[in-house]
């Protein structure tokens, strides 16, 4: 009984006078980072949509006014729960950054063109770039300066061969196309015989030198998830724990010391967000025998 | 989705543990209620007596265990014991103690005369030097040994409990040698749970490559002396010939609900591959964070059945006294609510999963059809239906739902189960005996001047002494 592909109708936003948050609805069809729809894990009444975490992160960064209209325009254009949003924390600088991911659908118009057209009133998106036929997903990253620049130079194209569990992610601009990540998606428990070697095949961590390091990257509190995305990137690896619950998301906030107002917001609304599953990513590399974490992030659906 | 390893709610439903109060005259270095004793109070008398009265009617618990803190310090202990004894509803009354005050024969005899027939005595060192260092109280070893001698002379059941840490890891077999003359009914070995000290700044967590060989030697030694053993929180695959001694069950503990918020969580890399994934917890999170997943050390027992993510957690056995290993549907009080329904639909009740907060009936019907009916405490939250005691939901519909016959069969089954529960539920049924028993009144005012120690997490828990 998988949920319908498309919600029957959109519902108004910011229509919860009690909290000012976007309420959840029976018509919500939340999706995970793999664009798989899932049933909410708790009853909907009294709950709010996961996108409130996105809006609050922008509010915290002082960027809500700048991005509110543009992101809602995408939501209106593509439909609810058709876009993935991500919020990332740079653990060195404390800066936040964001990502949108959109699933390209077969014969539909080029998704980059659709995004470009939708965002045109606010910024210019990757001029001259088109999604390739292999592009399953198109990613768009932005940070605190993006809107003032008025331009996003590149998009990320997630390309995966049919039936493959591996995805190659390319950052593509008019001038260049570079491989930025290779991702392998597995079930963490069922596929553990593949998971452990895949994590250990690393150019940035010498797991053989210290058996303890695996426990610092395959974080036990997040191990109970539905999918594990094992990523190899330039100068760093990453694990994305897909399908964790709100308690695990809160653990992530605390473990990686997310900004206090963000943690306070999540804590205040944790019970209202417990019906959803989230995707949490942790980038890592080894420095002087210790694991360091350049960035962490989490995703939900818009 | 979080597996039971991430939300383990241990119970075997047969034993009730009551925290009388939280004082102690030892200061064990591994104590997980060091902070908690500053603000924890025991179970209020009224709530305790209500639990006993309830058991008089339900006969749910065979045994009541009194603990603390060090429960022998509590003047009210005899009131608690007397009330339990006079209820006549418990087969055994157990005391969980460091044994020090039992060195006084007069006091030990008074305890025995009050009706306490089982003594669970902590012994964490094989000699005075080790034990006194761990307890930070000179003479504590000699007192405990004298207490054990007194108990043996009084002819009661004696058990020992040892918390496994770096401090005693080299001497576990020596502890067996120390206590063998008391012929304990059982020796329990509980791996240290660093609840106040996630990062193990106290350096008490023993790495498994050192702990497991020592423990195996101790277990073998005990076996040789005919002493039963039980091990908690050590992976089964590390226990060698004594793997069957692993027992991660726990009694119901009457304690503040927050206890379970910070109860340790566990994981094992080989959960999906191991035959004992449903009973072995693996390693706790602080251990994995400190020492890694031990993927080279752990050796899963090959599964003979397909692994499935245990959505509802560990099945906890029958609620009949002494039937913890009974079949998965042997929950008489709970199956009575739906007896006969499955048969009316050509279905089968394949499992009753009973936890503190939910009762799940799992039905199978036809080829591959399956549905779970979940009962949780009645609230005003959204529910498919409500009986007198419960909110009812259905979950995990499986089968070819495109097949009209299967879909209609499942629908009819769900409706019948729900209506039957509503019809038979007499009201007042509770999933969790403890629920609502202990509230804010169980806390002392917290001291204003003392913040948590560096590296110390908030603590509201009880473990072995």
TrEMBL record, chain A:
Residue span of region Disordered: 1-27
Top-level taxon in the UniProt lineage: Bacteria
Composition bias type Pro residues, residue spans: 1-10
Name by which UniProt lists this protein: Uncharacterized protein
Organism: Enhygromyxa salina
TrEMBL record, chain B:
PROSITE patterns, alphabetized: RADICAL_SAM
Metal-binding recorded as keyword: yes
Pfam families per UniProt: Radical_SAM
UniProt superkingdom: Bacteria
Sorted UniProt keywords: Iron, Iron-sulfur, Metal-binding, S-adenosyl-L-methionine
GO molecular function, one term: metal ion binding
Official protein name in the record: Cyclic pyranopterin monophosphate synthase
Domain Radical SAM core residues, every copy: 8-228
Positions of region (Disordered): 429-465
Keyword S-adenosyl-L-methionine: yes
Cofactor: [4Fe-4S] cluster
Encoding gene, per UniProt annotation: moaA_2
SUPFAM superfamilies given in the database record: Radical SAM enzymes (SSF102114)
């Amino acid at each position: 009984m998988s949920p319908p592909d498309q919600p029957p109708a959109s519902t108004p936003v910011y229509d919860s006078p009690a909290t000012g948050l976007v309420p959840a609805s029976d018509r919500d069809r939340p999706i995970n980072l793999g664009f798989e729809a899932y049933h909410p894990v708790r009853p909907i009444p009294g709950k709010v949509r996961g996108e409130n975490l996105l809006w609050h992160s922008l509010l915290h960064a002082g960027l809500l006014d700048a991005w509110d209209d543009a992101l809602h325009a995408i939501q209106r254009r593509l439909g609810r729960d058709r876009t993935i949003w991500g919020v990332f924390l740079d653990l060195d600088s404390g800066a936040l950054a964001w990502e949108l991911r959109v699933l390209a659908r077969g014969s539909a118009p080029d998704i980059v063109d659709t995004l470009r057209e939708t965002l045109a009133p606010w910024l210019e998106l990757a001029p001259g770039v088109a999604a390739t036929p292999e592009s399953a997903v198109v990613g768009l990253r932005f940070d605190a300066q993006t809107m003032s620049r008025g331009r996003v130079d590149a998009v990320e194209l997630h390309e995966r061969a049919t039936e493959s569990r591996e995805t190659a992610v390319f950052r593509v601009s008019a001038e260049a196309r570079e491989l930025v990540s290779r991702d392998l998606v597995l079930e963490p428990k069922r596929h553990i015989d593949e998971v452990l070697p895949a994590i250990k095949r690393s150019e940035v961590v010498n797991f053989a030198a210290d058996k303890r390091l695996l426990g610092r990257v395959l974080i036990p509190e997040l191990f109970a998830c539905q999918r594990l995305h094992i990523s190899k990137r330039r100068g760093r690896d990453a694990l994305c724990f897909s399908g964790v619950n709100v308690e695990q998301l809160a653990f992530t906030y605390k473990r990686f010391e997310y900004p206090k107002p963000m943690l306070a917001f999540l804590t205040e609304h944790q019970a209202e967000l417990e019906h959803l599953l989230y995707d949490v990513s942790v980038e890592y590399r080894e420095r002087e025998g210790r694991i360091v974490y350049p960035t962490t992030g989490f995703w939900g659906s818009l | 989705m979080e597996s039971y390893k991430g939300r383990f709610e241990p119970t075997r439903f047969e034993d009730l543990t009551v925290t009388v109060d939280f004082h102690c005259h030892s200061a064990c270095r591994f104590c997980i209620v060091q902070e908690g004793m500053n603000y924890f109070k025991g179970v209020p008398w009224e709530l305790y007596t209500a639990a006993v009265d309830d058991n008089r009617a339900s006969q749910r618990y065979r045994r009541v265990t009194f603990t603390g803190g060090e429960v022998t310090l509590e003047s009210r202990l005899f009131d608690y014991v007397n009330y339990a004894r006079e209820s006549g509803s418990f087969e055994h009354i157990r005391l969980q103690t460091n044994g020090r005050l039992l060195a006084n024969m007069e006091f030990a005899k008074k305890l025995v005369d009050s009706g306490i027939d089982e003594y669970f005595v902590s012994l964490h060192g094989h000699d005075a030097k080790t034990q006194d260092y761990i307890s930070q109280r000179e003479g504590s070893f000699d007192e405990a040994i004298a207490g054990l001698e007194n108990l043996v002379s009084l002819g009661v059941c004696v058990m020992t409990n040892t918390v496994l840490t770096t401090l005693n890891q080299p001497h576990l077999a020596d502890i067996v040698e120390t206590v063998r003359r008391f012929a304990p009914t059982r020796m329990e070995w509980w791996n240290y749970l660093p609840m106040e000290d996630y990062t193990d700044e106290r350096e008490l967590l023993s790495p498994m490559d050192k702990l497991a060989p020592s423990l195996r030697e101790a277990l073998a030694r005990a076996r040789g002396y005919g002493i039963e053993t039980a091990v908690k929180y050590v992976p089964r695959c590390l226990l060698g010939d004594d793997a069957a001694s692993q027992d991660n069950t726990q009694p119901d503990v009457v304690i503040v609900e927050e206890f379970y918020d910070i109860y340790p969580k566990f994981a094992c890399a080989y959960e999906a591959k191991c035959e004992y994934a449903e009973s072995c917890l693996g390693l706790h999170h602080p251990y994995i964070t400190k020492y890694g997943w031990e993927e080279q050390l752990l050796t899963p027992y090959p599964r003979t059945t397909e692994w499935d993510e245990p959505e509802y957690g560990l099945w906890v056995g029958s609620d009949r006294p002494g039937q913890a290993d009974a079949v998965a549907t042997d929950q008489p009080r709970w199956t009575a609510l739906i007896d006969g329904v499955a048969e009316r639909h050509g279905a089968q009740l394949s499992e009753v999963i009973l936890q503190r907060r939910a009762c799940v009936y799992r039905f199978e019907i036809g080829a591959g059809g399956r549905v779970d009916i979940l009962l949780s405490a009645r609230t005003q939250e959204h529910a498919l239906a409500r009986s007198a005691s419960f909110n009812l939901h259905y979950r995990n519909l499986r089968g070819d739902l495109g097949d009209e016959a299967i879909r209609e069969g499942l629908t009819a089954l769900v409706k019948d189960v729900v209506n039957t529960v509503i019809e038979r539920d007499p009201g007042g049924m509770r999933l969790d005996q403890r629920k609502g028993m202990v509230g804010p009144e169980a806390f002392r005012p917290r001291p204003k001047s003392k913040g948590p120690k560096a590296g110390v997490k908030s603590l509201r828990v009880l473990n072995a002494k």
